[in-house]
Amino acid sequence: TQLLEQSPQFLSIQEGENLTVYCNSSSVFSSLQWYRQEPGEGPVLLVTVVTGGEVKKLKRLTFQFGDARKDSSLHITAAQPGDTGLYLCAVMEYGNKLVFGAGTILRVKS
Amino acid sequence: NAGVTQTPKFRVLKTGQSMTLLCAQDMNHEYMYWYRQDPGMGLRLIHYSVGEGTTAKGEVPDGYNVSRLKKQNFLLGLESAAPSQTSVYFCASSRRDIRNTQYFGPGTRLTVL
């Protein structure tokens, strides 16, 4: 079983639609990160959330850390084709190791 | 400022062959990492280094060796490649005091026949 469970695994939507992807665990974390990976590239850090209940916004992207610090969500408003990619959540384990979820593949069609 | 670079970008090997993947970073980061990415499994840590001359095992170290002779370089070696090592390999680096902010290279796609 994976430490981080991401859902859905795949999402295909039309430009302009809203969507939410999730990252869940049974463990409590001091912080959680979201990365976006475009085809043929390495992951790029989008945001780090550290406080239970914290909400961070990055343009049309809204990130929330669960109150109990076990889960997180990423909401995209009015999705655009440029949002297409693999969205990964990650947590630091044992101080030195970043552990990733399997990711959500998002495809936004124009 | 190139960030993290990886060579080669693509490679095809036959079972039993050996190769070395090179990672270089120009951000003066203390920590460096090697991950592999397989469909449906996210990124998994192979080995990492907390400084020049020091390496440690990650989640999936078997079949791989690493070396960090210079602070800016981190090498990943496959002594006898197996088809199970077909994957995309990513190198990353971070500062010692912000280890959860990692900067990734563009990846190396390796196929072992």
The main sheet of chain B comes to: 7 strands, mixed
SSE pattern of chain A? EEEEEEEEEEE
Number of helices in the DSSP assignment of chain B:
0
Number of helices of chain A: 0
Average per-residue pLDDT of chain B, rounded, comes to 94
What gap, in angstroms, lies between the N and C termini of chain B?
36 Å
Termini of chain A, distance in Å? 36 Å
Strand content of chain A: over 45%
Account of the 3D structure:
Chain A has no helices and eleven strands. Helix content of chain A is 0%, strand content 55%. In chain A, strand 6 and strand 7 (61-65) form a beta hairpin. Chain A has a single domain, classed as Immunoglobulins (Immunoglobulin-like). Chain B has no helices and eleven strands. Chain B has strands at 4-7, 10-13, 19-25, 31-37, 43-51, 54-57, 65-67, 73-78, 87-95, 98-104, 108-112. Chain B is globular, with a radius of gyration of 13 Å. The interface between A and B is medium-sized, with 24 and 25 residues.
Summed up:
The complex is a heterodimer of chains A (110) and B (113). Chain A has no helices and eleven strands.
List the helices and strands and how they pair.
The complex is a heterodimer of chains A (110) and B (113).
Chain A: E1 5-7, E2 10-14, E3 19-24, E4 32-37, E5 44-49, E6 55-58, E7 61-65, E8 71-76, E9 85-93, E10 97-100, E11 104-109
Parallel strand pairs in A: 2-11
Antiparallel strand pairs in A: 1-3, 3-8, 4-5, 4-9, 6-7, 7-8, 9-10, 9-11
Chain B: E1 4-7, E2 10-13, E3 19-25, E4 31-37, E5 43-51, E6 54-57, E7 65-67, E8 73-78, E9 87-95, E10 98-104, E11 108-112
Parallel strand pairs in B: 2-11
Antiparallel strand pairs in B: 1-3, 3-8, 4-5, 4-9, 5-6, 7-8, 9-10, 9-11
